[in-house]
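Archive entry. Fields below.
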Amino acid sequence: MIKIFSPATVANVACGFDVLGFALHTPGDQISMALNNTGRIELHDQTPYRLPLTPEKNVTAVALQSMLDALHSQQGFTITFLSKIMPGSGVGSSAASAAAAVFGANELLGRPFTRPQLVPFAMQGERAASGTAHADNVAPALLGGFTLIRSYTPLDIIPLPHPPLYATIVHPQIEVRTSDSRKILRQEVPIKKAIQQWGNLAGLVAGLFTNDYQLIGRSLHDVIIEPVRALLIPEFYAIKQAAIDAGALGCSISGSGPSIFALSPDEATARQAAQAMHAHFDRLGIDSHLFVSPINREGVKIMENEG
Amino acid sequence: MIKIFSPATVANVACGFDVLGFALHTPGDQISMALNNTGRIELHDQTPYRLPLTPEKNVTAVALQSMLDALHSQQGFTITFLSKIMPGSGVGSSAASAAAAVFGANELLGRPFTRPQLVPFAMQGERAASGTAHADNVAPALLGGFTLIRSYTPLDIIPLPHPPLYATIVHPQIEVRTSDSRKILRQEVPIKKAIQQWGNLAGLVAGLFTNDYQLIGRSLHDVIIEPVRALLIPEFYAIKQAAIDAGALGCSISGSGPSIFALSPDEATARQAAQAMHAHFDRLGIDSHLFVSPINREGVKIMENEG
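PREDICTED_STRUCTURE:
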């Protein structure tokens, strides 16, 4: 039996819609996992979230099953969800579960796959969760750090370096469903906005390579997705401004929201940004959960081996 | 009197429409330039191209005048165009002229500006030439190497590193006007295509930083502009394939065309790509001019000082 920690992740990262993500140290999922002799995936839930325990409806099991199918394996697994990122928070809750399962199974089966090879299986969990097999959460959950999805067909994942960066996550206690959050996006975008977006993404990548905090900050702008999704978050722009005023390099919506992330060069600034955003939500009468974490360079990992 | 060499440049570079460009060693413009006491910009043409010699209609003079205006200067200049990139070729002919003039004047005036500060003046020449003050040719002409225009407002130019790369330029002798080439572009693009494009641009930037030729090659795809502009170049896709088959990492339209560029890791491959593309145009009965050049890391420069 192994226990696994699988990290929350921030997808999109302002200018990198559907292609960029990074991993956190906190929050994260914890599961325990063991082989069994039933030939089935058996799920147990110790979290408060009443997770669906029918394998076909559980993203963790869907991801694991796609991996077992690729191995033509009938192996059974027993998975217990010990603690969980709150579903629907916008920090890759389903991705963390899917990454945990495929990583854990890979370890228990003697590592038939490399970490990058696990990404497509975890993506099947994402497809089950949101209807789209996006990789911008599962790739950083599995590989750690910043990851670029250069291409989906064929899948081409590029790990990006980065200077020390601290993420602030503020999760207002309002509900935004990933599938709804995608539905409100326009299918066509003005070419002028697209040019601004890819200029910023290229600038962000350059800033990550050169450890240029100012360039990272100047590049953390989303002129396409954020203006639409901001409508789902009360006073988003005021809260973003509060983070910037507190010293954050940039601030935008994490994934499909409602969580908001900010990036700062040091932990003290990240905590000040957290307090500023929390205080603003507080004045609106909206409770919010806070997380401050350096970028997690490691990704999903075994916590302890009790086998 | 100084003589100045100002390089041709490849803008867009497949996935980087309006934001990316690089400089060549050949072809290029050569001008001579001197201060005069007339208070006017006097133009002389020794090229075969019958350049407009009225200052208001000459991109070189327009760029220079915008610089003089910023300095509140009434200084006169005498400029002689000695040799010139063929206008309308798609390798930054107007940008080379504009860069030459503002660089040369800056030298003659004791360098009141840094090279990056000259970019906005040269952009005014581009505005006169094509109606759009784009910077993706003038920035690499002035700064050398690969340059990213992260943002136009405010202007933010990021020099990018690169491994040794050899460019092949094939200029078919057909006419495509920059302004026409821009008019046929759609004002709205599908979000799915935009995502592919910015994934590739981010991948290209990462490949340039990591000297990863394979990643550079995988990223040199343009799914938005090339499919439209390819219609202006006979058998573009067959010619592109010929370059790839010859070993080039990637191939696309240079700027607004009709020149086609390819990038190769070594000179021999770049020459093979040149021959393959030339031979294909030859079979179509279209003459084409060939240039093979490493990336020019230096940009516009003084050739000799005869003062």
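CURATOR_NOTE: Chain A has a mean pLDDT of 95.
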